[in-house]
Amino acid sequence: MSSASIMALRVPQGTDMSIIRDSAVSSTAMAFRVPQGIDRLRIPFSSALAFFEGFLILVHVFLENQQGLRTLQQIPTRIDLASNVKNTSLKLLDAFVDSLFRFEDQPLLPTQSNFAPVDEIGEAVEISCIDGEIPPDFPEGVYIRNGSNPLFGALQSTVSVFGRSSETWFEGEGMVHAVYFAKNLQGKWRLSYKNKYVETETYKIEKERSKPSFLPAIEGDSPAVLAAFLLNQLRYGEVSKCISNTNVFEHSGKCYAVAENDIPQEIDLFSLNRLNEWDVNGAWDRPFTSHPKRAPVTGELVIIGVDTKQPYVVLGVISADGKTLTHRADLELKRCVLSHEIGVTERYNIILDCPLTLNTSRLIKGGPLIKYDEKGYSSIGVMPRYGDAKSVKWFEVETHCIFHVLNCFEDGDEVVVRGCRAQASIIPGPDLGLNKFEWFSRGLKPMDETVDYYPTGSDGFLFSRAYEWKLNMKSGQVKERFLTRTDFSMDFPAINNSYIGLRNKYGYTQVVDSAASSSSGLPKYGKVAKLYFDQKDKRIPELREKGWEDVVKVEYHHLGESEFCSGAVFVGKHGAAVEEDDGWIVSFVHNEETDLSQVHIIDAKKFEGEAVAKISLPHRVPYGFHGTFISSVGPILDSS
Q1: Is 60 one of the annotated binding-site residues?
Q2: Domain boundaries of the chain, sorted by first residue
Q3: How many Cβ atoms from other residues are within 10 Å of residue 477's Cβ?
Q4: 615 vs 134, 544, 591, CA distance in Å?
Q5: 138, 574 in Cβ contact below 8 A?
Q6: Is 291 marked as binding a ligand?
Q7: Which domain of life, per UniProt (predicted)?
Q8: Is 404 annotated as a binding residue?
Q9: Whole-number Cα distances in Å, 409 to 82, 242, 372, 580
Q10: Structure confidence at residue 381 as a pLDDT band (50, 70, 90)
Q11: Arithmetic mean of pLDDT, 121-133
Q12: Quick one: average pLDDT of 55-76?
């Protein structure tokens, strides 16, 4: 039986299958041919050839047949593997993939050394080397950060008759790194460090097979991505790996690792073992945002889930105890927006609709699965907490790309949204045929302050600045402005989480080192910034000449030479914190000269000064994504 029948495609009646096969085989665009060595497989050549021809028919029907397109768009994210391959040997599928696809390690440049993965260390290791002192009112708890850590030593590419597809840095398996802060009975600090892979079901599959198995299904030649899309689903019931590498969050006393291509994975904070998937007692059956937001006052968790099939974007509200999905709404968007984050205020949910889309139809027609359209439209939606698609008030705004929100709040008739805005998207990377290193290097260079618009490919087009939108709920008017100048690109924002959804005075961001980023072709963050939203930059005469008189005051904490940070979070003082910035910024920091990884604790009130403590870790920590600090974890920490 061919794989076409596995997917239950309906080839139009009267179609001459030999014509389809011959057309597929001879297609110059697809460059199909039976690979050399297929006769050496441990299966009859005729069976292998029949399967290969069947797969060609499958791809051809998807490429040429609108029914096939509709079928692909309706394929569930997860399928019952047994029911769909009951008449086909999984060994034959594996042999077919092994004969056609060659996995290759993606090499790293010397300037990319700390993007390389590390091994698990096993049991937690006590930390003894601390430069400075941990403040006495620093809370006990766990600082934990997620990141990409490819399982087999490097990101993978595959080469086949379909072309090349490659994993991006955002697709390595998730690994969490945790630093435990506890006081013993005498009140002295005891610190330890541990790391561990997030052992998702797809991680277990490749770990057991001891080799890369999932075909990269995001970036690459369209036929190769399409083939990966289909073959992964046929073999494993998943389009791609569940990576769970982007963020870590806490809700109702439980800790979760997450990436938005799947649902969260609950992890035990002490062992870092993955416990189970969190589908809210079976009520949530689709991907889950990497940045859920806890609503002020109620403590409910507001989420969205993006999928390549309709409904494209669904919003959910989870009860404060994490047991119930109390609200679910299809936002009825006309495109699948790669919306990385959501915002909340006291009464509203904030929806970001930018022209960064996933589109299987575009993929089938030879384009990329993920694409940013710099000439497309952007809008921001304001939705009552338990509203539906009809209740969303949409505001058209200037075209932009935004991944991360600083905060949202209500101010009279206005809803204020602050985030880190760029002219283009760093995901999925350059178009096919362009040099990836050169593309990233140019995009991460400093901006020309005399230019307002940066077309993709010009220097600085990936430059990200803090930005503000004021959305008037009565008049429908929008006021928007940059909050920061063109000195530095900044992203990965943090605030005091007690102010999520409420008016706040301060925000914190990681600051791009443009020179180091351009030389490595990947973003590196050499500073941390503190933004004073209620104070203007004091250099008014100079700024007025350049039209920047509304930018806010910014302080910078400089890391050391060749030091770069990741996973910066705000940690509030334990006990009687009075002001919003009573606390510290905590971040992983790596020195590329000494190859030493540390955790820095920076006083948020004395931001430009030296870190109050630099905690040297017993193991290298690669650059990663987002983290959190979970305080008052009690008995999981040994206080002896």
Answers
A1: no
A2: 3-100
A3: 12
A4: 9, 43, 13
A5: yes
A6: yes
A7: Eukaryota
A8: yes
A9: 49, 33, 28, 15
A10: very high
A11: 97
A12: 48
